[in-house]
Amino acid sequence: MLHDPDHRDFASDNHAGVHPQVLKALVEANGGHVHSYGDDPYTARLAEVMADHFGPQARTYPVFNGTGANVVALSAMTPRWGSVITVDTAHAHTDEAGAPERVAGLKLLAVPADEGKLTPGALAEAATVTRGVHHPQPSTVAISQSTELGTVYTPEETAALAETAHSRGLRLYVDGARVANAAAHLGLPLRALTTDVGVDVVTVGGTKNGAFAAEALVVLTPGSADGVEHVRKMDAQLSSKSRFTCAQMLALYGTDLWLDCARQANTTATRLAEGLARLPGVRITMPVQANAVFAEIPPATTARLREHWAFYDWTPDGHEVRLMCAWDTTNADVDDFLAVAAG
Predict the structure, then answer these.
(1) Of 213, 215, 221, which is closest to residue 176 (Cα–Cα)?
(2) What are phi and psi of 92, to 5 degrees?
(3) Comparing C-alpha atoms, which of 216, 146, 219 is closest to residue 184?
(4) Cα(102)–Cα(109) distance, rounded to whole angstroms?
(5) What is the pLDDT of residue 61?
(6) For the chain, how long is the longest CA-to-CA vector?
(7) What angle do CA 106, 75, 92 make, to 5 degrees?
(8) What is the 3-state secondary structure of the chain?
(9) What is the pLDDT, as a whole number, of residue 210?
(10) Closest of 95, 154, 189, 194 to residue 287, by C-alpha
(11) pLDDT attached to residue 101
């Protein structure tokens, strides 16, 4: 083995392996011939499943990964002269090597955010065009659910953003790489976070929640992402063997596995935060609402912890760190971490 299969760290939910039920679904999808490029029963079934989650008007387009999902969605939603309003901590702005701008040719207008959330006031201010043709025209609003800081938009908050966006002729996109964690935190179905509160397009995450490489772009408002099927192909996100992408998403969202995985990640993150908060010199810096814990930890403690686990510095000085829990993080993993942190 090239790694210890029993070791789990706290660096990223991307570090986790594939859920056994997803692996089983991949094996079951293998063998024999089916049509390619989405003309297969797995893709058709996934469309039905997503319609069950989001409503009969929903149209589903499987893609490989989160960056690709963001690029395809924003490309299809935004005209060439348009711009995308998002927050300065957004994944599309800070962690995708400029892909939306370089690949899609879009201009991102990043605004400061409190706890990772865009507010209607900040949106309204950013959407005000003052220089006519000299200014990139705000066309799309992009938020993440849950956010890059581990916070969750309530349905009321999302609805307020949708109302502000739509009143100005803008469309609302949700990067849902961790939308399962948000739904688990709120105790609400996916539709209540999206369709019912005015979201136009959402991507539904699989990779961070037990899949191997699978996301689904779901168009909720007809006409909000015209040409998305062509953009997906142009942006190299159309799988020739779509059955394998869809089999993963079916294993998750065709059952309650997506919710079980998200709940496990969220629950262990809460346990981790509560344990850390009891230690001297530790301060939890963000509300723990999904599967991320942000904390200021004494340097001597982080040095001791790094002897056993990987995790990321969030500030350049390394004083604030980000700890992520995944679908396979256990209470024992958390308790071992806390025991070493306590010294």
Answers:
(1) 215
(2) -65, -25
(3) 146
(4) 15
(5) 98
(6) 61
(7) 60
(8) CCCCCCCCCCCCHHHCCCCHHHHHHHHHHCCCCCCCCCCCHHHHHHHHHHHHHHCCCCEEEEECCHHHHHHHHHHHHCCCCEEEEEECCCHHHHCCCCHHHHCCCCEEEEECCECCECCHHHHHHHCCCCCHHHCCEEEEEEEECCCCCCCCCCHHHHHHHHHHHHHCCCEEEEEECCHHHHHHHHCCCHHHHCHHHCCCEEEEECHHHCCCCCEEEEECCCCCCCCHHHHHHHCCCCCCCHHHHHHHHHHHHCCCHHHHHHHHHHHHHHHHHHHHHCCCCCEECCCCCCCEEEEECCHHHHHHHHCCCCCEECCCCCCEEEEECCCCCCHHHHHHHHHHHHC
(9) 97
(10) 154
(11) 78
Selection from 287, 83, 52 nearest residue 190 by Cα: 52
Q: Quote the tokens at residue 332.
A: 């024992």
Q: In which residue are the tokens 């109302």 written?
A: 163
As a whole number, mean pLDDT of residues 268-290 equals 97
What is the mean predicted confidence (pLDDT) over 20-30?
98
The torsion of the CA quartet 52, 54, 60, 63, rounded to 10 degrees, works out to -110
Q: What is the mean pLDDT of the chain?
A: 95
What's the CA gap between 148 and 84, in Å, rounded?
17
Instruction: Find where tokens 């100005």 sit.
Output: 168
Q: Is the predicted pLDDT of residue 130 greater than 80, yes or no?
A: no
Residues 290 and 269: beta-carbon distance below 8 Å: yes
Nearest to 327 by CA among 28, 15, 91: 15
Q: Let me know how long the chain is.
A: 343
User: Going edge to edge, which strands form the sheet with 137-144?
Assistant: 59-63, 215-219, 201-205, 171-176, 137-144, 82-87, 107-111
Percent pLDDT > 90 in the chain is 87
Handedness of CA 327, 330, 336, 342 (dihedral sign): positive
Q: Which amino acid is at 167?
A: S
- What is the distance in angstroms between the CA of the first residue and the CA of the last residue of the chain? 31
Tell whether the model's pLDDT for residue 97 goes beyond 80: no
Q: What is the pLDDT of residues 37-85, one digit of tens each?
A: 999 999 999 999 999 999 999 999 999 999 999 999 999 999 999 999 9
